[in-house]
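Here is an idea for our session: we take a single protein and study its fold together. To get us started, please write out a protein record for me. Once you have written the record down, we can walk along the chain together.
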Amino acid sequence: MRPELLELARAAGLEPSYTGWKGESVTASDEALLAVLRSLGIPVDAVDRLDAAWAEIERRRWDELVPPVVVAWDDAPLAVPLRVAAEDDGAWELEVTTEHGHVHRSSGRLHDLPAGGHEHPPGLGRRAHCVRTAMMSLGGEHGYHTLRWQVRGARGESHVIASPTRAWGAPGDVPRRWGVFAPLYAVRAPSTGATGDLGALRALFEEVQARGGHYVATLPMLAAFLEEPCQPSPYAPASRLFWNELYLDVESDALGDPDDDPFARPDVTSIRERLAALPLVDYRAQYAWRRALLDEVAAYQWRSPLVRAAVELRAQASALADYAVFRAIGEAQRAPWHAWPAALRDGVPYVASLDDVPAGVDRARVRTHAWAQWRMGAQLGELKLDFGDAGGLYLDLPVGVSRDAYEVWRHRELFLLDLSAGAPPDALFVGGQDWGLPPLDPRALRATGYRYLVDCVRHHMDRASMLRIDHVMGLHRLYCVPRGFAATDGVYVRYRPEEIYAVFALESHRNHCALAGEDLGTVPDEVRPAMRRHGVANLFVGQFAMPGRPGEAMAVPAADHVASLNTHDTPTFAGYWRGADIDDKRALGLIDDAQAAAEHEGRAGTRAVLAGRAVAAADDDEACVAAMTACQQRLAESPAHMVLVTMEDLWLEPAPQNVPGTSDERPNWRRPWSRSFEEVLTDPMIAAALSDVASRREG
């Protein structure tokens, strides 16, 4: 490892070294660093030829007299850093135009501004920079503003994000709350075949709120490819800007004529019954069945001028028309956009209106997608309106999108297509993780004032009452694996966390949506203090805090935690109790027989402590229920900001929804509840368990 390369990597925004899960220092290889530097647009081809790379970094520094993004917190004045040479003098002028058209100006001479010290860019013969800071008032107006500046005779524009420091509904600002977790695809609802829909979600909301609950948490409900290619993972969506129409409560959109109800037709009923009887969700078959109904209902409703006008209005305010065209092309090609003919892959102009659908694109397909997105937004909006006063929908924002996603096709310049986001090796994944998601380019993202991120966050918060930020560490840095490299050979790419927190906090207040961050795994020291500073709740997972010795008890979450016994990436409580996750790791070859035996011995000790006796058998369901209830009660009585009850724990579901690090090896994201929705809603034991949580939370 050459020190010059490490120095260059840091100057380019990389972290070439990090602390691994065992506490050891891990440094990326020269080859991985060179590959990531090239992906960031730094011209470097060998360790001993770095002059061109340094020249590019210096050019970028000197081109950035004023940062592309400046943040103003709360009602404090805006501090604008001006990067100039130490000897530079001359006039400077700043003009901020706010979202509402108010104009604020400030001006002066460079030598009259305080200097924040000199920056000496590393490398050969680099000039020193002096950062001087100009201050100006924005009158306390929060929002996304435009800064026009003149410095040293140069002119330019930057983006201003003026935001509250803390998110709305932050820990300590609202009473303790609770809710339930239920993956919507797993809900066996009678009207939808094998997957739930927004009608089932509404029914679950009613049950939870009737018992004093506040939230229903579910996995991402974002757009997905469910034909060719078929990518059902909610964490590799087809877009973070649009919803998955599989969950639309299409049956509530009547056709007007009771005698022509498609849901009552024998062919529709028989398909629904067949799909509901399958042991796993068949996404292709499920989507094909529901898509035919969507096409029929959309065509009927499209006859209404009011519907057409409403959908067109939605299209003009977003990328809806362009997205609908993208999906229509993909369905016709039956392939991801990388495999489309060049004219479609690279030559389709942006479609701003449904009246501008390109020739050759199926307008009926475009119409269905546009109508379905409009209705999904409307139904989710009704849920927030009806249930959002003291809680509502707890949604999950994935860390990225599929490489085949809409926004990668349309906005390739925002993504680092030669890299994949992932995670470094840890105790569960000694080989590291490569999620296959193209990371966002931090420089391109800043240049646009985080417009894409704003749209993603707003899309969720407009409909959710609490938002979980998946892999919140990615706001600070993201582990990126170059194409062709092993997941153990990744490099951390740095982002600007304070600018990104400003987006989340501002949108949180505008949409009355609280924030939580998934901070499990390798967490840099600065992440949790930043979360506390900005009112973002941490996660507490009881399964990771179980007692190991007699006399111990499960640890108690703090007041800034969203607490649960498990997550969608861990075994259920019954699976944990029985050691099913240990057996699964052995079956997958992640541990050997000796390791499995040692882990089973440790798990037996935990069972004994939880059961309060020397031996507690893994197949003792009565002891499992008692232990699960006691642990859930401990969470409910804790000072935690919010407590989530995993619905499947209440009937001792043994199988997990997802086994991280697997794809075809396990039926991830495809396992429906083993009990029907009606059984769940009418089970007195489940009702009693939820009521008990409610009373302990209130107490």
Observations:
- Residues 65-163 form a domain with the Immunoglobulin-like fold (CATH 2.60.40).
- Residues 363-387 form the longest helix (25 residues).
- The first strand starts at residue 14 and ends at 15.
